[in-house]
């Protein structure tokens, strides 16, 4: 398995959430976006893996595992206490990836209300 090269923005006044692109050499194969928040339940700063995308041609090669490990390292450096994520109910490969990485289902529903009136 080839190691991924990660690009992570450093400081600056970016209004975007922390995100990283990763690839083999100079070819991007995916990206990950981490959003930050605060939670009383999780004792302070928490984060949400908002997006983890890997090009289909590069799936099942360990890149997801490397991306999750990378984002966990960055989150620890930022003082994050817990990372949350959502995964589709039928997405068994992703569920297995996250379970193997230590993520647990807390038997809760992720509920959303769009404040601008637009469900997307």
Compact overview of the structure:
The chain has 120 residues and is α+β, with helices and mostly antiparallel strands.
Q: How many distinct helices?
A: 2
CATH class of the domain at 16-86: Alpha Beta
Tell me, briefly, the overall form.
globular
Cα-based radius of gyration, to the nearest Å? 15 Å
Adjacency order of strands in the biggest sheet:
1-2-3-4-5
Succession of helices and strands: EEEEHEH
Summarize the amount of helix as a percent range.
10-25%
Derived from helix and strand composition plus strand pairing, the structural class reads alpha+beta
Tell me the fraction of residues in β-strands, as a range: 25-35%
Fourth CATH level, the homologous superfamily of the domain at 16-86: Gcn5-related N-acetyltransferase (GNAT)
Distance between the termini: 36 Å
The largest sheet, given as strand count, sense and whether it forms a barrel, is: 5 strands, mixed
Q: Do you know the CATH architecture of the domain at 16-86?
A: 3-Layer(aba) Sandwich
Count of beta strands: 5
**Average pLDDT metric:** 83
Low-confidence stretches: 11-16
CATH topology descriptor of the domain at 16-86:
Aminopeptidase
């Amino acid at each position: 398995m080839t190691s991924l090269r990660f690009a992570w923005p450093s400081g600056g006044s970016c209004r975007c959430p922390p995100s990283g692109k990763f690839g083999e050499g100079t070819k991007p194969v995916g990206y990950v976006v981490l959003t930050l928040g605060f939670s009383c339940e999780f004792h302070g700063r928490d984060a949400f893996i908002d997006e983890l995308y890997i090009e289909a041609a590069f799936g099942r090669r360990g890149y997801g595992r490397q991306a999750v490990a990378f984002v966990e390292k960055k989150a620890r450096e930022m003082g994050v206490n817990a990372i949350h994520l959502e995964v589709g109910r039928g997405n068994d490969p992703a569920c297995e990836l996250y379970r193997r990485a230590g993520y647990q289902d807390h038997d809760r529903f992720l509920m959303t209300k769009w404040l601008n009136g637009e469900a997307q």
